[in-house]
Amino acid sequence: xxxxxxxxxxxxxxxxxxxxxxxxxxxxxxxxxxxxxxxxxxxxxxxxxxxxxxxxxxxxxxxxxxxxxxxxxxxxxxxxxxxxxxxxxxxxxxxxxxxxxxxxxxxxxxxxxxxxxxxxxxxxxxxxxxxxxxxxxxxxxxxxxxxxxxxxxxxxxxxxxxxxxxxxxxxxxxxxxxxxxxxxxxxxxxxxxxxxxxxxxxxxxxxxxxxxxxxxxxxxxxxxxxxxxxxxxxxxxxxxxx
Length: 242
Known about the structure:
The protein is of the alpha/beta class. It is built from ten helices and eight strands. The chain has a single domain (about 40-240), classed as Rossmann fold, CATH 3.40.50. The strands form two sheets. It has a six-stranded mixed sheet with strand order 1-2-8-7-3-4, with helices on both faces. Strands 5-6 form a two-stranded antiparallel sheet. β7, α9 and β8 form a beta-alpha-beta unit. α4 packs across α6. The protein starts with a helix and ends with a helix.
């Protein structure tokens, strides 16, 4: 029945698969399986930033997965947020398990720069985080998206920067919003992003959360801070195959 509705909607509103270009579907079953068809796994960039918490990812950032993420982020294919949210939810489950008595899972999205959000017309990571929280609640895990991180200073465009340059560029760039510290103490914190490459962004986010919680910046002092992404560089998966 799902396939029938996709065919009918494609006749009325012709589209192409964001992953492979197949006509009359926003995302074909093959490309959807590339995102959501295998269990999320731990990833670890090399070199690993000192404050990077444990991270899980749903898929390698290549081929159809790369195309789908770029379509959502850069071309405003907002209908892809739900499937990207499902992939992110799988990563959250893998890294966090069940929260138990720790309270709900608090999905803290890495903030986009204001200029990037304005240029795109939306905040892709926040949108995916909300979709992931809905998916987690649907499957019985209490969760909410909690956008309590913000940029405290401007940063340079990360494209073209190496791992060390990214760490320098992002050092001290994020902070917890006013009142955010109190909210972060009422659940298990999972930092979320769409993509992990060098790990510098998530490491800075973990530092900011740790500083906000008053633990001197240690990412896991409260036993609550983990991280989850939709996709990661293939090499980050390769380090975890053995």
